Structures are given as structure tokens and as C-alpha cells.
Amino acid sequence: MSKQQETSLLVPGVRGWEIWKQSSTGGFVLQSADGIEHASDLGSLPGGNLAMLFPVRGMHALPFKASSTDESLFEDLAAMHAERLGVRADPMAGQLTDTFLVSKEEESATLLCTVLKSPGDGDLPPRSPNEFDISPRAYPVNGEAIALWVEFGRWVFAFFRNGKLLYSQATSSSGAEPDAACLREIQLALGQMSIQGLALKPEAIHVWSPDGDAGSAGSLASGLGMAAKVSPRPDPVLPQPRSKLLPADVRAARRAQRTKQQRMAAIAAVVLAYLGVGAWFGYGLWKDNARIKKLYAIAEQTAPQAEQEAYQLHKARWQELDLVVNIDNSPVEILSRVARAIPRNSGLRLKTAEINPGQIKLVGEAPQAAPISQFDLNLTKASYGLANYQWENPPPSNSNKGWNFNFTGIIPQEVTE
């Protein structure tokens, strides 16, 4: 049995990125905190699995109360909530949104929609991480609480409900302790939560100071009406449940890696087959090949011309039936797979679907851009049976009736003219 690979975490620290490595006990131990702010400059990344936690300043936290407890609707409801607030993820930048359940009531649910800002130059490490998440979800907190800590020289805060992240925000404060400006931003966020019906009643205030126990909570205790606990920031953990965040250039790197592995496997198979055949047959293969050629020549001279013509006709007719006998080329099956890839209850519909051997052209519309981005992502997933197509999906266009899209999928070297 192969040994399970250890996971390392890239965590936004006080001055720059920190590298935490998984220990034999399952927790994480700080390996490096050298103050490098650009992830692309990180060198000597540990081997094995790599998980990256995006900083608070690189995301939008959009909590809301959904009027349904049907989890299949959560992503669509979150997309509509983000659209109403004017927050849109770049559809060409990969999977930059995710939705987390905070709590469920009888007929409603409290959700947190997170939208990453499109990563810019230097925001991603030189080696593509295996998974991504956001830093506030990596710190364990009990009950309803407020937590503050420093990321890249600025104080950030997060609200937790039942130990789950409800909201997070970066402040403009960069002092040694939370100042009056930081307090005002927390009070404003608490007021906004109350207006949305998400009032928070904190049982504790945690100030994770860079100075540890020797740090100060500033004016938080008097401003928020309860004592603040000052301590070092807790060690990070792998968030649960895992997120679905996946920036676009990481998707491209993974596709290139899979293509390279498949190409190398095919070459290795050919080489092994060639060596095996050569070692097994050797000189006898040459003699048998010459004999086979001679027998073929005799068979062609003696075979009736009518039988050869009948065979060619039978072969041509069988090829015409390929769309029926080969399920992967059946237009009905392909259209069924396309339909399954359409996000449920999203309002996305197809106006035309042109299916030819080796080529799919899809033209459609949706009331919002988010379902089109999810549809684009679904088409590339192996679970929908369309990943063997190379998709050329330009960004959707906006009109007074909604969003329009025009997607084209091609199987390399299989498009017939």
C-alpha cells in the first residue's frame, strides 16, 4: 500500500506568505515565514499535496439568508445574491465562487457566498496547488465570536456563527493593535448584518496579535462592550467541507499535465509493445511475415471479384451506421449529456444545438451570467462525458433580455468537412 502524501499549506501571514507542513500527528507545523508577499516568488515549496489559502483582501464575503433549505438551489441563489450586489466573478478566470452553509432553520438557511478577485501577476505560486480555500475558514473558533488578526500588514476580522465563518473583511488599519478606525469598520459590519436579518451576538472577541499574549486589544473591549482575549493566532487546519475554488490558470496547468502524462503513457506503451514483440518473435517474425505476404497474394488472385465488392459495400454501410452503433457518436446521447451539464433551475436554455461528427455548436441564453460560467465549467468535467472535446467558449454577451452565449466543442482531428 502506497504512503499517503502529506499536505502543505500556504497561509497569508503578518508580513508575507507562511508555509505550514503537515506533521505525523495530522496537525500543521510552521516551516517558513520569510515575509515574501508575492506568492510567485516562493521558492523551495515542499513536495506532496499543496493547498493555498487566499487572504481576506483577495475575496468578497457575501452572507445572506436564503428562503429555501434545498441545497441543490444554494449555488443559484448565491449567484443571484452576488449579482444584486454588483459582484461578478470573471467567467474566464476559472471557478472563483463557492457557497458555504452556515446554518439551517425550518424554512430558510443562512449561507455565505464567497467570490475571489481574479488572481493577478504574482498572486499564485510557481507550483500549482492541488486545492484552494480562504484563510478565515482555516482557523477553529467556537460559538458566536469575532476574531481579528493581521494579514500582509493590515488588520482583518471575521464573524463566526456556531464555529462557522459568517463574514470576513480586511480593514484599513495597520498599527500594532486594533485602532478606532478598525473598531468603526467592525461596528459598521455588525450593523449591516443586523439589517440583513443576520444579527450577531458575539460571546467572545479574539485578538490574535502578532505579539502573542503580550499584544493589546486596543479600544475593542470598550467599543464592543465585552472583554477581548489576546493570544497568538491559532495554527491553521484544513477547512471542512473542502471548497470548489479553482483559478483558471491552475485548470490550464492541470489539463496540460494530464495531456503530457497521457502522451508519455502512449509512447511508453508503444515502446514496450515493440520491444516485447521483437524479443518474442525475433528472426521468426520476419519469416512469418514473408509467408503471410505470399499467402495474401495467392488469396487475392483466387478470390472472386464479386465477393471483394460485396465486402467493400458491407464495410461502407457499417461505417454509415457508426452514429447508431457507437454511443459516444450518437447525436441523441451527446444532446443528453449537454442537457445534464445545464445547471438546474438556472433559467439557462439552448436556442440551437448543432451536433455533427466530432463537433458541437451550442447557442443559448440565460437571465444571469453565473449559470453560463457554471455550464462552461460543467462541459469540461469528465463526469458529463464531454471532456474529450476541446471547447472554445468566448465570454457571454449582455443584452436587454439577458446574457447570450455561443460555445463550440471540437474533437481534435475528427471534424468532417
Plain-language structure description:
This protein is α+β, with helices and mostly antiparallel strands and 417 residues long. Among the domains are: 59-112 and 139-235, Nucleotidyltransferase, domain 5; 249-302, no CATH class; 325-410, 2-Layer Sandwich (Gyrase A, domain 2), CATH 3.30.1360. It has helices at residues 74-84, 180-195, 220-224, 248-281, 283-302, 305-320, 322-325, 331-341, 369-379; strands at residues 7-12, 17-22, 28-32, 49-54, 59-66, 94-95, 97-104, 109-116, 131-134, 145-151, 154-161, 164-170, 204-208, 228-231, 246-247, 349-356, 359-366, 390-392, 397-399, 402-410. A 5-stranded mixed sheet has the order 3-2-1-4-9, with no helix packed on it. A 5-stranded mixed sheet has the order 12-11-10-13-14, with no helix packed on it. The radius of gyration is 29 Å and the shape is elongated. It starts with 6 loop residues before the first strand and ends in a 7-residue tail after the last strand. Mean pLDDT is 85; it is low at 250-256.
Summary of the model, kept short:
By secondary structure, the protein is an alpha+beta fold.
